[in-house]
Amino acid sequence: MSFADFYGNAPVLDRLREMLASDRFPHAVVLAGPRGAGKYTLALMLARAMNCLGRSDDHPSTPKRRVPGTPGDRVIVSSGDRATGRPELTFIAADGLPDFCGKCENCRRIGESQDLDARFAEAVEARESLKDTDKRETRILVQTHPDVLVIPPDPPQMMIKIDQVRHVNQSIRYKPAAARRRVYIFSDAAFMKEAANALLKVLEEPPEYATIFLLVRNPGELLPTIRSRSVIVPLAALPVKQIEKVLAERRPQWGARQRELVARLSGGAVGRALAFDLEHYVAARKDAMALLHAAAGSGDHSELFRTTETYRGGEGKEKTDHLVSAVYSLLKDLLALSSGTPDLVHNTDVMAELKLLAASVDFQWIAQAAQQLGQVESGMRRNLLRPLSLDAFALGLER
Fold this sequence. Notes:
It is built from 17 helices and 9 strands.
């Protein structure tokens, strides 16, 4: 794996790699973009490029000053590291910019954090095995390399907590043990107030050998004082056609209409597209369409009641989450059709059915439906009966 394997945003990648080449990489970087845009993948790639130890067969044994990379085979040049005194190795790709080998000890160990969900689950399981007193004092951190630390939101509140930031503030004082730079990756912007304020301390006087990545959907989620001390790097959404091309290579079992559907629903985020559970979405959308038809019409509600009754039981909560997401998606499409912008419709494979439904509702009905759907979500958080909440949603919108 290398930067060439990252999908889209080539100008952004080039700019970041040029910063690495000139040794002017910021101490704090906000990577902003939708879920699945590749923020975490890019942060790990940059961490590996900063610390790659890969060597080529003709690499000289004595350090020399870094020289600009030239197109051709990958080569490696090195120079003395001012911060640590150790040789600094820079892996140069064919395009003349820094890259990483993906095979050396540093690349391999940093790459073990790639599956963040799995590492997070392991950390949570390890904490659950502790005594209650220790459990309360232990925070979730992911570290597969001694100098690269991932800080995910801590359950059950799923927020970055002050003890996590305190750990960062303490460990960042020490120079890296096995790498050139220490790297800290905050995988979410959901900071508790005290934690955000604690992070400001290290951002005001960062050590020259450390880099902090903050991964956010919207930079506005962060405190203005944090944004002002960081370089904001937005990742743009990929065009639908480009995501369809990726899906054709990685999901060959899907047909053209399925690929277009997933590409549109992914919001331009290739990671979200590749992880999309098409089977569950189509099943949830079928129920969502039945719910909206019942809400837009009147008369016999037997089909509605049969549908909502299936949302009882232990698996009902997850099913309801999928259903609510599908209803929101269909409401957005109805709004696009009602406003005369059919090119913005995501569920293009059911366009005919959407047009029939759009002809029977208006903007006010769509807005009311979105508002009442929010009430359904609120009721779910209060453990109200899901079938009754869904029935009330549909019956409350009857014309």
